C-alpha cells in the first residue's frame, strides 16, 4: 500500500471519528455535538480518577502486621500459677503485653529471627480471671493486636432440698462442695449476712438456722470458694408447708341445772358443779366432781337428783 492509499485510509478513519462528535446541518456545515463531547470528557475523568487512586493506594498503603497466637483462650488449674503466651509475628517486630489484673504495662517480648515469641507470666492463685492484650508493631506497618483470656474453674456447690413445715422453728442448710472449701451462707429475707463455715474432707457441710414463726417464704444462698477457683453459688427458695386449720366446732351451752322437763335418757350430757357436789355429799354421800358424763352413767354411779343437774 502506497503513501497515498495510507493517507486516504487514515483520513477516512479520522473523518468517521469526527462524525461522532459533529453533526451536519441542512447546508452541509459541520457543528459540534456538545452532548456527546461532555459525555466523553466525563468518561475520561472517571477513568483517570480510578488510575490515580490505584497508584496512590499502592504508594501509601501500610500493610497490617502479622500476628498469630497459639492460644487465645485458656483454663488453668486451681494450683497453677504459670502460663506461657506464645505465637508468631513479623520478623523484626516488637511485641508488647498489657494486663490490668497482672499489672502489666506494655511489657516488651523478644522476637526471634523466625518471628516466634513466647513469654511466661505469673498468675497468683487469688486471681481467677485474666485478660492480656498482645500487640505487634513493625515500622511502616499498621499495629495488630489481640486478647488472651485466661480462666480458672468454678468451685462446685450443691445445696440439699429442705422440707420446712409450720411446726419447725429451725432448719438445716446442708450440701456438698469441694473438700475443705470456705462456705458463706446469706439471706436478705432473714437478715443473715456472712455466716462462714468450712466443708469437711469430703466436701460436706451443714448449718442450723433459727427461723422466726412469721417467716413462711424466703431464700437462702450459699457461696463456696477454694483458693485459685472462682466462687460457686447455689440458692434455695423455701416455702413453709402449713397444716390446714381445723374447722371451728359449735360448742353447746350447758347449764348447771336441768329443768324438770329435761331429757333424762341415756347418752345425754350432765355437769355436776361444785355446788352439786356439795349437795350430793350431804344427801347421797361422798362423790367426786365430774364433768360431761352421760346421764345414764351419772344415774348408775352417782344417782344424781334432778335438782343437781
Order of SSEs: HEEHEEEEEEEEEEEEEEEEHEH
Biggest sheet details:
5 strands, mixed
Shape: elongated
CATH class of the largest domain: Mainly Beta
Helical content stands at 10-25%
Q: How many strand elements?
A: 19
Structural class: alpha+beta
Going by CATH, what is the homologous superfamily of the largest domain? Immunoglobulins
Assign the CATH topology of the largest domain: Immunoglobulin-like
Q: Termini, distance in Å?
A: 161 Å
CATH architecture of the largest domain: Sandwich
**Please, how many helices?**
4
Mean pLDDT: 77
> For this entry, what is the oligomeric state of its chains?
single chain
What number of structural domains do the residues give?
Answer: 3
Beta-strand residue fraction = 25-35%
Q: Which strands sit side by side, in order, in the main sheet?
A: 4-10-9-6-7
**How big is the Rg?**
51 Å
Uncertain stretches: 253-270, 287-292
Transmembrane segments: 38-61
Keywords: Membrane, Transmembrane, Transmembrane helix
